[in-house]
Amino acid sequence: MIEVRQLTKRYGDKTVVDNLSFTAKAGEVTGFLGPNGAGKSTTMRMVVGLDSPTDGSVTVNGHTYARHSAPLHEVGALLEAKSVHPGRTALNHLMALAYTHGIARSRVDEVIELAGLTSVAGKRVGAFSLGMGQRLGIAAALLGDPSIVMLDEPVNGLDPEGVLWVRNLLRQLADEGRAVMLSSHLMSETAQIADHLVIIGRGRLLADTTVDDFTRDAGSGAVKVATADTAKLRSLLVGPDVTITSSSAEELMVRGRDAREIGAIAAEHGVALYELTPQAASLESAFMDLTRDSVEYQSAPAGAARKAA
Ligand SMILES: Nc1ncnc2c1ncn2[C@@H]1O[C@H](COP(=O)(O)OP(=O)(O)OP(=O)(O)O)[C@@H](O)[C@H]1O
């Protein structure tokens, strides 16, 4: 488990991480989200002692990172996929890491296979694509069989097959009881992997929630209903705060009543439904709404440039 408590980091007069508290629990995938420059990497660097907090604390399995005698067994981290000597082969890179912790060669072979790097293990890392570099970084993070896995933008540069691989791997690691934390600035991608979301902007906590709750709250509140008797259903559903629109002869879009209510009313009056679907709003737009005020590098709306010209 990673416990972040009132964590603050300042560089000069700039506060990059601001009184941040959250917990990444065992058995869960925690998605750590925020726009560019929000302070995600800085927070992750403090988790593994590469930066020291100006204030507050962060512990892994109850102790600060530096207090662990064999930290690779506690936290496996991927922070900067390209921070590997380019002249070394993937195998040599992992062997060098393994030596520092007395990890057996058999474990190196295991993580090479797990990361899908068997055919390129003898190649120099300098010739690796971004995606292969990410896979090597993940292999290194798993080398010590750690109870915490923390990955900074792990799907960056991966092709769809690679993204699916990371998604399945992280789920498997959490199901084995590990605490998994990954950072991203992509809400919809993270929602497919994570259970728990920690969203920050300008170093501050904006939301600490579950994917299910975030998705529900992001919902548009509309329910799509399909039936052969739209006229009858419409008359049954009307009410003071209910709006009903129709896009085809057999479909209604209902706002102001939830799916359970609509289903119950239809059943009570013998109206057969073919479809009853709550409409999800775009997670990405809910994320953008939440972080709008904390985006550091905001692009002008598409129309603005034209108007100015
Ligand atoms: N060593 C440093 N000295 C001064 N400022 C820094 C330093 N490291 C990071 N920053 C600043 O801290 C802010 C947060 O950076 P950080 O890399 O943690 O954000 P991030 O959320 O990981 O962003 P991204 O998604 O772009 O990687 C940025 O404004 C960055 O310029």
UniProtKB/TrEMBL annotation:
Residues annotated as domain ABC transporter: 2-227
Name under which the protein is recorded: ABC-2 type transport system ATP-binding protein
Instruction: Supply the InterPro entries for this chain.
Output: AAA+_ATPase, ABC_transporter-like_ATP-bd, P-loop_NTPase
Membrane-spanning parts: none
Q: Name one Pfam family in it.
A: ABC_tran
Question: Does the record's keyword annotation contain RNA-binding?
Answer: no
Q: Which SUPFAM superfamilies match?
A: P-loop containing nucleoside triphosphate hydrolases
Xref: PROSITE patterns: ABC_TRANSPORTER_2
Q: Which family does it belong to?
A: Belongs to the ABC transporter superfamily.
Per UniProt, the keywords (alphabetical) are: ATP-binding, Nucleotide-binding, Transport
Q: Name one GO molecular function term.
A: ATP binding
Q: Which domain of life is it from?
A: Bacteria
Asked if the Swiss-Prot or TrEMBL record annotates the protein with the keyword Transport, the reply is yes
